[in-house]
Give the backbone structure.
Amino acid sequence: MLDVKNLYCERNQGLLFEALSFSLKPGKVIQIKGPNGAGKTTLLRILCGLFGEFEGEVLWDLEKHPIYLGHKAGVKDLLTVTENLNWLCELQQNYPSSDQIKKALIEVGLLAYKDVMAGQLSEGQKKRVSLARLYLINSPVWLLDEPFSAIDVEGLTKLEERMRGYVEGGGSIILTSHQMVNIDQDVTELLLKGANSC
Amino acid sequence: MLIKSIQRELLLSMRRPADLLNPLVFFVLVVSLFPLGISPSDEVLKEIAPGVIWVAALLSTLLSMEVMFRNDFEDGSLEQMSISPQPFLVLVGGKIVGQWLVSGLPLVLMSPVLAVMLALSEEGIKAMFISLLLGTPILSLLGSIGAGLTIGLKKGGALIAILILPLYIPVLILGTHMIIAAEQGVSYSGDVLWLAAILALSISLAPFATTESVRIALSDG
């Protein structure tokens, strides 16, 4: 479903990666690892089409768009949690019922906040709002940038559980994380060495 | 989706009334300071009214331009929009329409009151209303290109002004000329057509330019 061939990218006069090739198949997980500044986020941004200054090929073969979770949660302070979630789903051409929204909010432990302005939530809670999409949107690939940061232990277990179920159902995940991912599945590691080499 | 995007924009503005009121208050204040500063005599006011109204409208639009994409950029909403399967052009178009509805339209509706204060004749007020109605959407459309280009910059306000003001000048000239012509009792239909033509041109081109400029800015984020 994804073929990356000969990717080359430099940023701020430093080489991030060259001749980088890998592919992603349904039901597989790729974890991008590497030191800070190695280009993990840049690689994810290239994959989802946010960053265009690279050479090489990124070939997607998908029927539906991936879900991307970036450093910024994409949650608006001036909208309530439910309004935010509705909008984020509509962007992905999903139109969940209020029942479905409710269920997703139970999963991420935010039901009590469903009509609260997102501006009053903590960083971790905002991230949970964005993560609630994983329960609502039917997408073949998740691109997750540091999904575990700012999330507490309980949330982390929940998230790993959701990832496990998703991968068993044929979904694929590319994520960046410094942590070990514990989802009983082969996790292919992709190590970026970073610009230090030159 | 266009409607949804506009609705969202309006809802967000309603929840932050300061953004909604700032340009309007600025417009009213600037225009009402002139009679105090120069002269309250009808003759003088009539003379300066077209220029004062248009320059104030122009600056107040610039004022509201800076925040147009800033908030969506900072919280990550903009990148979610740009990679969504929904056409980004439509989402950005919705933002521009929303921006005009909360900053341009109130200004147009408010202007006849100010025109009376500046001693414009009935015919002049009519011309001014039409010129602003056609002109402010152009200001919003062109301004959005500059707003897109300067998203990533911390102090983008001054840069937007430098980028966009030259493009505003034809609108300023046509708009003021229209009011002057009406005051002198000359036909101004040519100016109306010119403004309408520029509006049509901006509607058909500016959203594309804005979408691209936002994409470029996002790429650096």
In short: DSSP finds six helices and eight strands in chain A. Residues 1-66+141-149+171-177+188-198 of chain A form a domain with the Rossmann fold fold (CATH 3.40.50.300). The first strand of chain A starts at residue 2 and ends at 11.
